[in-house]
Design brief:
Elements lengths: L4 E4 L3 H12 L4 E4 L13 E3 L5 H7 L3 H7 L7 E4 L5 E5 L9 E3 H10 L6 E2 L4 E8 L2 E6 L4 E4 L2 E3 L17 E12 L2 H4 L1 H7 L3 E6 L2 E7 L5 E8 L2 H5 L6 H10 L6 H8 L6 E7 L12 E3 L2 H4 L7 H18 L4 H17 L3 E2 L2 E2 L10 H9 L4
Parallel strand pairs: 1-2, 1-11, 2-7, 4-13, 11-17
Antiparallel strand pairs: 3-6, 4-5, 8-9, 9-10, 12-15, 12-16, 13-14, 14-15, 18-19
């Protein structure tokens, strides 16, 4: 007989955990602060990797559903110089190593795979406390509570469950994205659509870069990254879209207009996305009855692995609980040991370690040499 699992957070990690538990006949309830699955947009494209994210979807029995929502051709990637020159394009080889899907579609698949009532919407967690003997009480903003002997925090960067295990808190890492969208790009923004191409495009430079992705249809989703203190961004009035876009664009003076148009010609106001991270070696002592997955456990600055690791964390924890039905502490110990090791691995692309934005090697030519072995 399996003890029901209480999961806080209906993101990709929490939903994968609930789904794989369901596959193994283990009951779970997911508590989510948002009022419904449609209350906000779920972000852009995700590349789901064959060595982690896809393994989780296989464990969830959802590979057919996943393949049905892959956006064909979006796995291609271009390296572009600030002057707009396309130095190199890695084609979508169709082999499925890093296929792209819309985050909202992946979340929908996971939600649809769960029994009705698994997710309790509109349950914002205010805090949690230990009751002893591995039992914990989770309190909600509406005054309600739930007591559980198997608690999993899948509630992201600002987890309300993490303090049960660790005093660590996310800290600003010195970089931020400014996010924009261009709609009907092929007809309304043809020069920018041309330089972005059919998949993703990155135009890197030390301390700054522009990344864009073609989503479903001809929508371009851009992330403009700058290495600046929080105070620098705080001095920009992001409530005035045109002023904020122009101020950000000045940091890219001399860059090709088809690149800076991702800021100046955007169809949405620029949205600031500061980057936070937990300490790289974030660990905690085994605490009976509770554990963490995803960003709640190992938040890092965006590196292409966050969603994939959350998926795998959820799947592997569920499999460990299924393998140890009479010893949940053994399952939690096994999960944490493997998760800590995964989170500590260096991020690579095509087997090559990825440079940080502030690196002098953060240029299109240096990236080309790194990936292909060609001289810049």
């Amino acid at each position: 007989m399996h003890t029901p699992v209480t999961i806080v957070g209906a993101g990709l990690g929490g939903l994968t955990l609930a789904r794989v538990l369901h596959v193994h006949g283990i009951p779970a309830t997911v508590y989510e602060a948002e009022a419904s699955p449609a209350v906000r947009a779920q972000g852009g494209m995700l590349d789901i990797h064959d060595h982690n994210g896809q393994l989780a979807l296989e464990a969830a029995g959802l590979m057919d559903e996943f393949r049905a929502v892959v956006v064909e051709g979006r796995q291609s990637m271009r390296l572009v110089d600030p002057d707009g020159t396309v130095l190199h394009e890695m084609a979508d080889d169709g082999m499925g190593g890093r296929p792209e899907v819309q985050r909202a579609e992946l979340r929908r698949i996971l939600l649809d795979s769960l029994p009705a009532g698994t997710v309790r919407w509109g349950h914002k967690v205010g805090g949690a406390r230990a009751l002893g003997g591995g039992r914990h009480e989770v309190s909600f903003a509406d005054g309600g509570t739930v007591v559980t002997s198997l608690l999993v925090g899948a509630d992201g960067a600002w987890s309300r469950i993490r303090p049960l295990l660790s005093g660590a808190a996310p800290e600003y890492v010195g970089t931020s994205f400014v996010e924009t969208y261009l709609y009907d790009a092929d007809t309304r923004h043809p020069d920018t659509a041309k330089v972005v191409g059919s998949g993703s495009m990155v135009a890197p430079s030390p301390g700054k870069e522009i990344f864009a992705h073609r989503e479903s249809g001809d929508t371009l989703h851009a992330y403009v990254a700058l290495s600046r203190p929080r105070d620098w961004f705080a001095a920009i009035d992001f409530t005035d879209a045109s002023v904020a876009a122009a101020r950000m664009a000045r940091e890219f003076d001399g860059w090709a207009p088809e690149l800076t148009a991702l800021l100046t010609d955007a169809d949405t106001p620029p949205v600031l996305r500061p980057h936070y991270a937990l300490p790289a070696e974030h660990r905690w002592d085994r605490t009976p009855g509770v554990t963490l997955i995803g960003d709640a456990a190992h938040l890092a600055a965006p590196n292409g692995e966050g969603a994939n690791l959350a998926l795998l964390d959820g799947a592997e924890l569920a499999k460990a609980l299924a393998a140890h039905p009479d010893d949940t502490e053994a399952a939690f110990t096994e999960h944490e040991r493997a998760m800590f090791a995964r989170a500590a691995e260096a991020v690579t692309f095509e087997g090559t370690e990825v440079h940080g934005i502030d690196s002098p090697h953060n240029t299109a030519r240096a990236m080309l040499a790194m990936i292909t072995g060609q001289d810049g």
